[in-house]
Amino acid sequence: MPPRRPNSPQRAILYFGLFVIVWWFLPFGIKLLQKRVFAEFQAPSLAGMSYLRDLQDYWVARAHTRSQLIELGMNLARLNAAYELRNQEFRHLENEVQRLEQILNLERPEGFRFEVARVAQRELNSWWHILILRKGSFHGIAPGQAVVFSGGVVGRIRDVHTYTSTVELISNRGFRVAAHIQGDTRPLQFQGAAMDGLAKPVGRVSNVPSDVRVASGGRVRLVSSSLGGSFPDGLTLGWVHYLETEPNGLFRIGDVILDERLLGLREVAVLIPIQPEN
User: What are phi and psi of 71, to 5 degrees?
Assistant: First the structure.
């Protein structure tokens, strides 16, 4: 009798098993190369879908009535006027800082430039919280750089390709950064904690000194610390509403409520360090 040939489901399982075995024994360098090649191959489709969404939004805006457009224009004019006042105040404060630095002969701290990037895709499951941006190494973006928006910290650049980059969100369980409470310079540790039962992004603060208290019904602002390296000091991470004592009795811990806008960001800014001139 001729040997019995495996049917289609059996062949599929056999091929899959062979693929897993071959992949397991492949050198790490080849796996990394395949990952980068796949990311570069996938980038045009991600960017294309993002541009199509922008085009859809454009035609939706074109469908507004004249009265709606007039109202939107008036709201935009008010926002522009408010931002112009803030810019004037900022320029005044910056000039004052420069004047004091010259008087005290202080070295100017390292600065950043903003690279604005559109969000091409987001993944917000129970474990991994990441964004994929439409800009990459071609635009000066590198791993470890800070990502921010108007509400504070978004996350940190994790992987970079030529025209795309991946952001590890502040709510990701693997995200850790040095922090401190506004008005208190003692360093703390912040870690992402994904989402709570109400699907709100949350984090966790630890190593809080035992003398720090949060008033009942109040909250304190948790900000980034320059000790973390990637982030400048004072960027909003979130708000702490209560603290409890750790089992060791030495420090306190608590949940950090993050900005809900993290779940629907369309545009962010990457902080790229400015190299000092020689």
Answer: -65, -45
The answer for residues whose C-beta is within 8 angstroms of residue 167's C-beta and 6 or more apart is: 130, 131, 132, 133, 147, 154, 155, 156, 157, 158, 268
Distance (Å, whole) CA 76 – CA 261: 20
Q: Which two tokens stand for residue 72?
A: 């939107």
In the structure encoding, which two tokens stand for residue 184, read together?
Answer: 């208190």
Q: How far apart are alpha carbons 114 and 119 in whole angstroms? A: 15
Range among 83-87, 164-168, 214-218, 224-228 rated most confident: 164-168
The secondary structure of the chain in percent helix, strand, coil, rounded to multiples of 5, reads 35, 30, 30
Amino acid at 45: S
Q: Which CATH class is domain 110-278?
A: mainly beta
CA 109 to chain centre: 23
Amino acid in position 237: L
Measured CA to CA, the distance from residue 50 to residue 52 in angstroms comes to 5
Domain ranges of the chain: 11-62, 110-278
pLDDT in tens, 89-113: 888 888 888 888 788 876 665 678 8
94 φ, ψ (degrees, to nearest 5): -65, -40
Q: Please, which residues bridge with residue 190 across strands?
A: 177, 205
What residues contact residue 66 under an 8 Å CB cut-off, 6+ apart? none
pLDDT tens string 42-94:
666 767 777 777 777 777 777 777 788 788 888 888 888 888 888 888 888 88
Give the distance, in angstroms, between the CA of residue 202 and the centroid of all CA atoms in the same chain. Answer: 13
